[in-house]
Every structure is written in C-alpha cells, then in structure tokens.
Sequence to fold (330 residues):
Amino acid sequence: MKPDFIRFLSKFLLFLLPLLTLVGYAEVRLRGVANGYGTKRASLERQLDSVEVLVLGSSHAYNGIDPNCLSFRAFNLAYVSQSTYYDTRLIRKYLDRMPRLRLVLVETNYFSLWDQLANTNQSWRDFFYLHFWGIRYRNLAWFDLRRVSYVALYTLPITLQYALHNFNVSPSRDSLPSLADPEACPNGFGCCPADTTTDLACVGDSWGKARVQYHDSCIKASNLSANIADLDTMLDELGRRHVRVVFVTMPACDCYSRYLNPAIKLRNEQVIDSLCSKHGCGRADYLTDRRFVCSDFSDGDHLNFRGAQKLSRILDRDVVAGPTEPRVAR
Fold:
C-alpha cells in the first residue's frame, strides 16, 4: 500500500470515529426509550395468566373498547393501524400462555380484510412489530436498515430531538415527536379519560368522503385471500381450545358510513359470515347503530372515551356476559 493512501485512510477513519461513536451511543440509548409497542407488550405479559377476554383490531377498537367496562378480566390488544396479519400473529404467539382465555373480540372494519401495513403510509410500523413484538411481516425487505438500526427505525430527526433531551423521553410526552404512539393504559385501552368530547364541527361530508377515499386506497384485492387464510388458521387454533370468537364492527358517524362502497361492505359480510358458519363464531355489527351520536366520537370513525364506555357496556350485555351466540346488532 502506498504511504499517501495509508495516511488518507488513517485520517478518514479518525474523521469517522467520533461520528461512529455518536451513532453507537444513540443506538444503545434508543433501545431504552419507552414506546407504545414495548409498553403494551410488557403490560400484556404481566397478566397473561389472568386474561379472560382479548380484544384485537386497529385504532377503532384500541380507542373504542374499554376493558374496565367488561364483566371478565380483559386486555385490549388492538393498536393503531394494526392489521389482520398482526392480530392473528399476536394471539397465536401468546395463546399457550393464556390458560383462562374464554373470548376473543375481533374488530373488523371496512378495509381490514383487504389491507397490509406494507401497502400503506404506515408501513414503518412493520419494523416496530419486528423489534418490539418479535413478529416479522412475511414480505419485509431484507436490505432495509430499519431491520437492524434503531436510529433508522426512529428516523434521524426524531433521534436528534431525543438526544437533545438526553433520551429521557416518553411516548406520553406530547412535546416530542414519536413514531410509536402514546402509551396505552395497563389494560391496553388507548383512550385517555379526559377525552370525553371533541369538537366535530370540522367533520362533515367532505371529511367523510376524504376519509373513505383514504381507506379505499388501503384496499388491495390481492391481500384478501391471505387475510382470510390467517383468520382461518387463528380460528382453528382458538376452536381447538374452546375459545369463543365474536367479530365486532365498530360504530361510525353517518358522514363516514354513507360513503362506504356497498360492494366492499357486502363482500366483507360474506367473508365474515362464512368464517362464522365454519368456526361457530358470532358477529356484532354496530356500524350504523343509532344509539351512537356525534358527542360519542372523536372524529367520524373513532369513538372518544364516552363513546367507548357506551359501546363497551353494550358489548358486555350483547356478547361478553350475554348469550353464547350474540345477535347481529344493526
């Protein structure tokens, strides 16, 4: 090797050393930062042996079903943008460690049978499930740096802001940005008790149309068969353990529900009815239930704390403490 090149390489490595040290320090410290995924996993694992009712689904169930209003010990395992893929993997991951489980409530919304996180603007969440739940999406790219780097996972701008606070941060601190959402309650429920009413003046037809258009963009016909297969496998395992399953459709404001594609709604009903017939599941549909009014919602398709308590008490009567085969609510 020529002396000039050796000198250049030595200087270059000396230049990189402080940067690599800082990146390494950030990687270590980020592993100690709390986030919604990690805290939810810890909460669930502390009470696996006592959970009797488990809630699965997306933010609609996460914010809309309060375990405190149910007659049996319940945990809300739903989460923001959580897809069918992760619902089914999460319960199968822990099923053998939940000896008292008797009922699973599975939220099914307009698009849940048709989407995967990888096809949406929430695809970054796939890597949080990988790191904090140990669940890898089947088509996760092998060459993505977020598979191995927490700096890449949280993104450099957020890492820098965390570093300015000496990594003493929490997902419940609104002053700092986060990709990992607020912490849930110890029972997994996502709604803050202070969130009882929200000004819905800005929610109307234009909001509903835009919201449905976004959800339509998440619908990919190519995902349907895989999601059905995942549900079928989950229901087989739950059936062998004599765990009852009820599919729940959450309430929504009329400004949202009136713009849903009738063909998608019909296909959803056909799929769920077929699964129920095959596995002996129940179905409770509250999408257009007139008992829910604007003051029960934080936006057009999410219940607020007040609405969550109302729905949870209704679910308790209809499904949890009620008949073995729940009626289909309309």
About this structure: Residues 324-330 have pLDDT under 50 and may be disordered. The domain at 45-122+187-320 is CATH 3.40.50.1110 (Rossmann fold).
